[in-house]
Specification:
The chain is of the alpha+beta class. It is built from 6 helices and 12 strands. Helices cover 23% and strands 24% of the residues. A hairpin with a 3-residue loop joins strand 3 and strand 4.
Length: 278
């Protein structure tokens, strides 16, 4: 947490402020989040223009005119906000990117991360795919490149359970624990089933429901279970639309059977025993 929909919601929101803006400076109020922060980040982006704000998996990518790209990962508890530059900073506001919009308005992009599992770094834009956090990522969960044939080839080599396989960022990036449970429920697939045992129809169902679940979650601002907030300060309303995740001992919306929780590789997994027999 946050997963792909929360990161995409954040990207869409900050884009309207950041695109074509000039970075005035970047302030790092700590020297380390999950990893050490490169001290050069405080000066290398000064007076550069923001050309593009994109995303892959759980990473926000901010391309600048200095031919470098900022890489942001929200970690477990991080969230972004846009505030007035002169506004008082609050606890856990670790990274502050001060910028000036085309109309001369000055604002700040603030990264707040209570648990400090997030990360910020930068890399040459042309060689971005060589960055240690990016180079091993699989296909983005909302990418049009996510198709049946390449996915089937990967699954045929996987003897791991499909729940664990969906969490492998080297295969499909962006799926975390919450959405893996939801996607498998929508697809009527038992999370204990081995990936190499999935039929063609089940793979097609997975592909369809990855896009459906992610798209619905983005439209609802993502899912707030504990810490996550949208950049506008609101919670993610998709939590109210979850079909199985967090609903242990409650009735399934589709069949009225009781949802139960099991642990797969120390991760909570929620399942309807009737809807997900296979």
């Amino acid at each position: 947490m946050p997963e792909l929909p929360e990161v995409e919601t954040s990207r869409i929101y900050i884009k309207q402020f950041l695109l074509n803006s000039k970075i005035v400076d970047i302030q790092a109020r700590v020297s380390k989040l999950r990893w050490n922060i490169n001290p050069d980040i405080k000066k290398i982006f000064n007076n550069s223009k923001i050309l593009k704000i994109s995303r892959i998996g759980k990473y926000i990518l901010i391309n600048a005119s200095n031919k470098n790209t900022l890489i942001l990962h929200l970690g477990m508890s991080g969230y972004l906000s846009i505030k007035e530059t002169i506004q008082r900073k609050i606890k856990h506001d670790h990274i502050i990117i001060n910028f000036e919009r085309v109309n001369g308005e000055k604002k700040s992009l603030i990264f707040n991360d209570q648990r400090r599992f997030g990360y910020i770094d930068f890399h040459n834009t042309l060689n971005l795919k060589k960055h240690f956090l990016i180079k091993n990522l699989g296909i983005d969960g909302l990418s049009k490149s996510l198709k049946h044939v390449p996915l089937k080839k990967i699954f045929l080599k996987k003897t791991s359970m499909i729940k664990s396989t969906l969490l492998d960022q080297k295969i499909i990036c962006g799926i975390g624990n919450i959405y893996a449970s939801e996607i498998l429920f929508y697809s009527k697939i038992n999370p204990l089933k081995k990936a190499n045992h999935l039929s063609n129809d089940e793979i097609n169902s997975l592909l369809l429901n990855i896009k459906i679940v992610f798209s619905k979650a983005v439209l609802n601002g993502g899912t707030t279970i504990k810490d996550y907030k949208q950049p506008n300060g609101k919670v993610g309303y998709f939590a109210q639309k979850l079909k199985v995740y967090g609903r242990e001992k409650l009735k399934c919306y589709d069949c009225n059977n009781i949802i139960f929780k099991l642990n797969i590789n120390k991760r909570s997994t929620y399942i309807c025993p009737e809807c997900q027999k296979n």
